[in-house]
């Protein structure tokens, strides 16, 4: 455990807690957390997760813009994804998992390459849905967060494993809260 991991955990927790509350402030705080985790994951050879943080930064700028300036100057509403979109994201995640896992296995000394690649693909699908306030993002996050707990425990990132346990709880709360709001 390093001061870098501690700072990443604190900003990561704050980001997700603010996301559950639909706060636009979640996005810049998330960018800081991602930047910190780029270094943490590089140090433990979770290269797919390190790369994911780069993508998260880009998507966070998009999410920040989208949530702060929704179409027609209204608050971006919570909605459901179209089944076609979910199937497309699932297929893309499966292909990306295989290709990225193969690449990591073939060309790097990555730890847990296929697991890492699969969780990254699932996380990207969830993040895409989150930037557009699609409620299905929370279900994907719950599953990914639970799997990430095991990955980070194996890599002795105990504080980060604890963070992902908190993320799983927050994602469950997010799903409940957003479901209530969607019905209202």
Shape, per Cα inertia axes: globular
Topology pattern, helix = H, strand = E: HHHHHHH
Q: What summary fits the major beta sheet?
A: none
**First-to-last CA distance:** 43 Å
What is the radius of gyration?
A: 16 Å
Structural class of the secondary structure composition? mainly alpha
Q: Would you count the extended β strands for me?
A: 0
The figure for the number of domains is 1
pLDDT averaged residue by residue:
92
Question: Which consecutive residue ranges, at least 5 long each, have pLDDT under 50?
Answer: none
User: Beta-sheet strand percentage?
Assistant: under 5%
Number of helices: 7
Q: What share of residues is helical?
A: over 70%
């Amino acid at each position: 455990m390093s001061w870098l991991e501690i700072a990443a955990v604190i900003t990561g927790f704050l980001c997700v807690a603010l996301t559950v509350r639909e706060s636009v402030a979640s996005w810049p705080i998330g960018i800081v957390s991602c930047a910190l985790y780029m270094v943490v994951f590089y140090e433990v050879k979770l290269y797919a997760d390190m790369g994911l943080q780069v993508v998260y930064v880009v998507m966070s700028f998009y999410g920040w813009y989208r949530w702060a300036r929704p179409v027609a100057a209204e608050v971006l509403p919570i909605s459901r994804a179209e089944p076609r979109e979910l199937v497309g994201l699932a297929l893309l995640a499966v292909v990306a998992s295989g290709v990225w896992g193969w690449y990591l296995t073939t060309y790097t000394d990555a730890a847990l390459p296929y697991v890492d690649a699969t969780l990254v693909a699932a996380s990207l699908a969830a993040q895409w849905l989150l930037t557009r306030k699609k409620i299905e993002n929370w279900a994907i996050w719950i599953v990914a967060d639970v799997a990430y707990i095991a990955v980070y425990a194996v890599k002795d990132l105990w504080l980060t494993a604890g963070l992902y346990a908190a993320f799983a709880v927050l994602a469950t709360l997010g799903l409940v809260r957003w479901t209530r709001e969607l019905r209202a």
